[in-house]
Each structure stands twice: as structure tokens, then as C-alpha cells.
Amino acid sequence: MTEHGKKYQTAVKEITPNTAYEPEKAIELAKKVRYAGFDETVELHLRMGLDPKNSAHQIRGTAVLPHGLGKKVRILVFAQGDAARTAQSAGADFVGSDEIVKKIEEGWLDFDTAIATPDMMGKVGKLGKILGRRGLMPNPKSGTVVAAGDLPRVIEDARKGRVEFKLDRTSIIHLVLGKSNFDTGKLVENLATVVDAIVKAKPTGVKGIYIRSATITTTMGPGIRLDLKALELTPGVAG
User: Fold this and answer.
1) Do both 79 and 148 map to the same domain?
2) How far apart are CA 45 and CA 4, in angstroms?
3) Cα angle vertex 136, ends 134, 139, to 5°?
4) Interval 169-210: pLDDT, tens
5) CATH number for the domain including 80?
6) Which of 160, 184, 210 is the last residue of a domain?
7) 2 has a pLDDT exceeding 60
8) Predicted TM-score of the model (pTM)
9) Residue 126 placed within a domain
């Protein structure tokens, strides 16, 4: 078990044990107990009532945060010809084909999200082991493999603060909500947006409890349990 430092232990004392907080109070508390010497990221962790080994329980999707991620998103687009020119005009940071694939194979990974046109997937596919483990592999289910005509919209969404969610092998969904220097109200709205998207993405036929628990935390801070009933009543969250 990891031994936490004095600052962490001090932060934990601010949290009432066995208490589930309403979204606004949880976020305010997370901001209050942060102690790192940098602007920490605010994270949401959802324990789902889904079986990761059951193909019918798989969930994957995206949400565009209304207040963004609080950082510049570096966008790579795998494209060629007219599609490449469209991506460049739409503001992608990096655009290319074989030369980009080779560069990644050599170790270059200075980007935050990757998008590809369908005709490029034959070349991009061999980067699966490199990009997949980092969550950077373009995928039709996450909306990152798109036709050339859709590139401007997808690039704009990525720039605004597009986040991807998917179930991991431990039945948890991990998400970023923004930076700890955001106003509490903006973080609550970002939270409402992602939970709404996850509720709407519920696989058909899934019975029982869908979201078992929810926790808010910052990069270095302790977890703060969310009141799920209050979460359902948050504006923009589907019941």
C-alpha cells in the first residue's frame, strides 16, 4: 500500500469519512484541499455496474466540455491529399501520412489527440501497440476516424475540450473535468456534461445499477465521494 505524505494526510482530514457530497460541495472541497505546487487537474472516476468481459456491456463515447480542459490541445491528423489540406485549414497542429507514422515509430508522441480519415487506417493500424496503450489510437467508436468533410468539426471539438470515455478492465471510467483553477460552477457544468453523455450511452439490455459510485479528486489529492442522487439532479444530467 502506498504511503502518503504529510500534506496528503492533512488534506484527508478535511474530508468527512463515509460522506457523499453534492457535486458543487465535492468540487469546492477538492479545490480547497489541493496542495501540489502546480495547477492540478480535476478528475472524475466512476465505478460502473458493468462487466468488462461482457461484449454487451462495453461503453465508449465522447463529450465536449462546455468550458474546455484548461490547456492547449495538440491535435494530430493522419490524412493525405485534399483531406490533409482540409485538416491544415481547420487548424490541426500536425498533419501527415507516412512521414508521421515513421516519426511515431521512432518515438515521437508530442500530441494529445489523434484523428484519421478512413483511408489512412491501413497505415495507422500498425501503430496500435504504441498509440493504444496511451489512449491515442484513432477509433470510429470514439469519433476519431472521420471522413474528410467532418474534419473541421472534429478538430474544433477537440480544440474546445473533447474528452473520450470508455470502460476499463476494472469496470471504472476515468475522466478529466478541467483544471483546479476553474470556477466551481464551470467544473460542475463540465461534470454534468460528461455524466449526461455516459448515461445516454448506457448499453441496451443492461440491468441493475448502472453507476455504482463516483469520486472527484485532483491530480495529487484524496478522493471525495459524490452523492449519486444529487448527481442525477444536476442540470443537464439525464435521470
Assistant:
1) yes
2) 20
3) 130
4) 999 999 999 999 999 999 999 999 999 999 999 998 888 899
5) 3.40.50.790
6) 160
7) no
8) 0.79
9) yes
